[in-house]
Amino acid sequence: HGANRLGANSLLDIVVFGKSCANTVIFNLTKEGRTQPELKENAGESSVADLDRILHNKGDIPIARIRERMKESMALYAAVFRTEDSMRKGVEIITECYKDFSHALVHDKSPVWNSNLIEALELRNLLTNALITITSAVARKESRGAHARDDFQDRDDVNWMKHTLAYLDDPKAKVNLDYRPVHQDTLTNEVEPIPPAKRVY
C-alpha cells in the first residue's frame, strides 16, 4: 500500500506490488528453505486469553460510546487542515479513548456470531491506528500530501523526507516515534530515479 500516491489506481497497485511481493516470497523460500520451526505447546494461548479478557471484561463503557468519541475527535482534531494546538488536543482525547477501552463493556457474551465482540476488536484496532496517526502527525512539522498544517504550510524535504516508524507501548498508551530514510533509487537499472518535486495544481 505505501508505494501508491494520491490519485493512483489502487487496483493497478495491487497487481504491480502483489506480483513484487510474491516474487520476494519465492526468492526467500528458495534461499532459506521451506522448513518451519516447531510451534510451542502454548502457541496461540495468549491470543485466546486476550479475546476472553475482552469478552468477559467487567467494564461499564459501551463500545459505541468510545467509538463515537474517537470518530468525532479524529474528524475535529486530525482533519485535513491541522494545527499544533488542534492535534495536541486530539492526542489527549484519543489517549483517553485508548485507555477507556480497558473499561469497555461487551454486552453479548456469546461465543458464536458475536457482532458486539467483533465491534470491540475493530474498535481496538481503530484506536491503535488513531493514536499512532495523530501522534505521528503532530510530530511532523511540515505539510505533505494529505497532511496539511496551517502552521507549517510548506513541505520540508531537508528535515522531513523520511518515513515515520511508530511503536505503541500498550500498557502506557504511549507512542514512541522513530524514522527511516526514504529510498529514492529504483530497484532496477532500466528506470531512472525521479527526484522529488513540489506538487502544484
Q: What value does the average pLDDT take? A: 90
For the biggest sheet, the summary is: 2 strands, parallel
- The strand order across the widest sheet is 1-3
Strand content: 5-15%
Distance between the termini: 24 Å
Task: Give a nutshell description of this structure.
By secondary structure, the protein is of the alpha/beta class. The chain has helices at 10-32, 45-55, 63-77, 84-100, 115-139, 157-160, and strands at residues 61-62, 81-82, 104-105, 148-149, 162-169, 174-181.
Notes on the protein architecture:
This protein has 201 residues and is an alpha/beta fold. It is 47% helix and 12% strand. The chain is built from 6 helices and 6 strands. A hairpin with a 4-residue loop joins strand 5 (162-169) and strand 6.
Show the helix and strand layout:
Elements: H1 10-32, H2 45-55, E1 61-62, H3 63-77, E2 81-82, H4 84-100, E3 104-105, H5 115-139, E4 148-149, H6 157-160, E5 162-169, E6 174-181
Salient structural properties:
201 residues, alpha/beta, two-stranded parallel sheet, 6 strands
